[in-house]
């Protein structure tokens, strides 16, 4: 198998962090997003949606969508569990993972794509008013997450999970989107320092 | 347990269709979205994100996010399998479910929320230019999906899955968003007629 990888972009990083946490070594095939290589005919044949990452299995099957790829590895390599054990814990983790996708990673991505000058060629047309509409949503969700992290160590409970991976990547993606975590959100900052200190954060 | 339900809105409908396909009967607690009851203090205590649906378990745990709720039931009631069997099939289904969420249900929802007069009080501010930016994305994805459905009966393979549920709800949500499936997309139309004819589509 090989993993088509996109360097610094947030979604490819989610899968690399996941693999590092699991101790899995998967051959990477870099695709140069800056050179728009993900829009080439060669890569479009791999993923017609022209997004990264994509995992190609030995039988030729192509899997896309970061969490679908991670969950595929989870089934093959259950330890350590990053998607939870049992129906209820797994549902709580998936709930938080999706809340972060829809209320933090999504809005941050919309802001980045619709306001950053470097995205002019990729996001056509850029809609600066949509970036602006998402700014308060990011702040609202960060405050909510800070309140949750007052009472527990990680996003979905007392153990590090895939919800922390999406959370870390989303918060780190705030920097290129020119957004900052308010200093007052001390629980969120404690959590972010904690998950950033894990070796996987370098992946 | 009880399921906080939101009537005609797309996400609550996804869970109701899923439950109908599984033959599961869960007590519903209606929340009147039109009267903004999802923003009441009572419901905010259930789901601080003020979204529907939400599943409250007998121990008080609240699960939100439609797919997390469905997957919770899938673990308790595996038959018939709507999330696939085995790592690869499950990943292909999750890939398609998420592709439809991000490239169809999401854009249709953005168009509805940012252009429909009835959403003025809910989507503040409405950004009509963002609705316009999403219109071609919807058409591009519908064309891609039509091409996929040329070669197989359902969205993710030869069996009906949760990816078909999200697909059906997304296509039906195009009507209030004032969007139409082009007549030329005959494979998509065949699939839509097929999944719409199932009794679960009435849920």
Characterization of the model:
Two copies of one chain form a homodimer. With 203 residues, the first copy, chain A, is of the alpha+beta class. Chain A has two domains: 2-76, 3-Layer(aba) Sandwich (Glutaredoxin), CATH 3.40.30; 87-202, Glutathione S-transferase Yfyf (Class Pi), Chain A, domain 2 (Up-down Bundle), CATH 1.20.1050.10. Chain A has helices at 10-22, 41-46, 66-76, 87-115, 128-149, 162-173, 186-196, and strands at 2-5, 28-30, 54-56, 62-64. Chain A has a four-stranded mixed beta sheet, covered by helices on one side. The longest helix of chain A has 29 residues, at 87-115. The two termini of chain A are 19 Å apart.
Question: Which descriptors apply to this entry?
Answer:
203 residues; 7 helices; Glutathione S-transferase Yfyf (Class Pi), Chain A, domain 2; homodimer; globular
Helix-strand pattern of chain A: EHEHEEHHHHH
The CATH first-level class of the largest domain in chain A comes to Mainly Alpha
What would the principal axes of the Cα set say about the shape of chain A? Answer: globular
CATH topology type of the largest domain in chain A: Glutathione S-transferase Yfyf (Class Pi), Chain A, domain 2
The average pLDDT value of chain A, as a whole number, equals 97
Task: Kindly name the structural category of chain A.
Answer: alpha+beta
Helix content of chain A: 40-55%
Please give the radius of gyration of chain A in angstroms: 17 Å
- Between the first and last Cα atoms of chain A, what is the distance in angstroms? 19 Å
Query: Can you count the helices of chain A?
Result: 7
User: What is the domain tally of chain A?
Assistant: 2
The major beta sheet of chain A can be summarized as: 4 strands, mixed
Uncertain segments of chain A of ≥5 residues (pLDDT<50)? none
> Count of DSSP E strands of chain A?
4
The CATH level-2 architecture of the largest domain in chain A is identified as: Up-down Bundle
Major sheet strand order of chain A: 2-1-3-4
């Amino acid at each position: 198998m090989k993993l088509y990888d996109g360097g610094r972009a947030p979604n490819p990083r989610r899968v690399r962090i996941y693999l590092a946490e699991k101790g899995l070594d998967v051959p990477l095939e870099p695709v140069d997003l800056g050179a728009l290589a993900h829009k080439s005919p060669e890569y479009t044949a791999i993923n017609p949606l022209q997004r990264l990452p994509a995992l190609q299995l030995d039988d030729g099957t192509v899997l896309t969508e970061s969490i679908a790829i991670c969950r595929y590895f989870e089934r093959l390599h259950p330890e350590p569990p990053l998607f939870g054990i049992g129906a209820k814990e797994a549902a709580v983790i998936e709930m938080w993972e999706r809340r972060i996708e829809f209320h933090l990673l999504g809005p941050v991505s919309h802001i980045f794509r619709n306001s950053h000058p470097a995205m002019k060629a990729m996001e056509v047309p850029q809609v600066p008013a949509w970036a602006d509409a998402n700014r308060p949503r990011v702040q609202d969700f960060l405050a909510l997450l800070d309140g949750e992290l007052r009472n527990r160590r990680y996003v979905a409970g007392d153990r590090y999970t895939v919800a922390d991976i999406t959370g870390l990547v989303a918060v780190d993606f705030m920097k290129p989107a020119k957004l900052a975590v308010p200093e007052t959100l001390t629980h969120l900052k404690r959590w972010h320092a904690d998950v950033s200190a894990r070796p996987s954060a370098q992946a």
